[in-house]
Design goal:
By secondary structure, this protein is α/β, with parallel strands linked by helices. Helix content is 34%, strand content 21%. It has twelve helices and 13 strands. The chain has a seven-stranded parallel sheet. A four-stranded antiparallel sheet has the order 3-2-1-13. It has a two-stranded antiparallel ribbon with strand order 4-12. Bound molecules: N-acetyl naphthylalanine and magnesium ion.
Amino acid sequence: MKLARVEIVHLAIPLVTPFRTSFGTMTTKDTFLLHVVTDEAEGWSEFAADPEPLYCSEFVAGAEIVLRDFLLPRVAALPRLTAPALGPAMAKVKGHELAKAALETAVLDAELRAYGMSLATYLGAVRDRVPAGVSVGIKESVADLLDDVERYLAEGYVRVKLKIEPGWDLVPVRAVRERFGDALPLQVDANTAYTLADAEHLRRLDEFGLVLIEEPLEEDNLYGHARLQQRIATPVCLDESLHNARDTASAIALDACRVVNVKPARVGGYLEARRVHDVAHAHGVPVWCGGMLETGVGRAPNLALAALPGFTLPGDTSASARYFAEDVTEPFVLDADGCLPVPRTPGIGVAPLPDPLRRFTRTRRDLYGGREGGR
Ligand code: NPQ
Ligand code: MG
């Protein structure tokens, strides 16, 4: 393939309800899609982060510059454009995994469309449907939280994740356990809100039989997570801390985590995400697919990944309606068993629909080629 044009499409899509985590409150999904045009096929992807660097250090405006000035010139210089060549071509640019993932995914979508192969087949999927969990934000009151959880369970979600922070942990977790019973697969996500000094407090979560506690401590504190794991029975799961397969192997060897959250964007794309899966699965460590409030463009390839054999826990791969009244693609809808279908058509299996795309678009620019031409 030969790269002809790369377009950035900035979107803003309202969320059905504000989503509060320990790092902030979101009311709109405000991000961009990448549209890659080659001589053989076109591809789409979604940048996973927000306009503000609160979940991770990357953010929308920074990613646009990194793509335009540092990543695209390297990728455009490749003699032959193919997704597996992108990682090595971009490796000298430090960090920026989410920006790299967006570019690699759009190129991979185009490449697989040219072959007529689905991403699920390419990655080695072994399932046609994947069970869906739901991530529930921090609420104004426990009563509000119980209402939300009840509604999600009625919709069919098979496991619940509660966002926690200091001051919103033991009480909401106890309330959900008491109301919905011990059989409900329940887990919590702190998004780095605690320190190792909170170990005794976090140990009090042990009595609730949680599936896991996700990213309790600082992003760059593998040692602290290992120390914490020695003091609590709840399995520690890492999200923000894991940026590639190598640091995942280190975390497992240190016993800093007993479960792995894989977000393809956080590890630089689907090829590295498969390697993260492979290393965790080889150690018998359960893997699940995280979520970044993606539109259908980001959700579709996550479902393909979540169909790999090591994804033995339900992910945050929720239905479109969990976040959006209207999606930019055909919506993903839960089936009667609380599962979502794995896309099976070529590439990521979806593309933005022209009408919603037009209505949700803020701006479109060419980052490479085209009229405004990159470099
Ligand atoms: C997590 N996701 O597992 C993340 C946090 C998160 C579904 O809980 C914009 C960009 C909004 C990144 C919202 C879930 C986000 C975001 C939440 C990340 O930690
Ligand atoms: Mg998380």
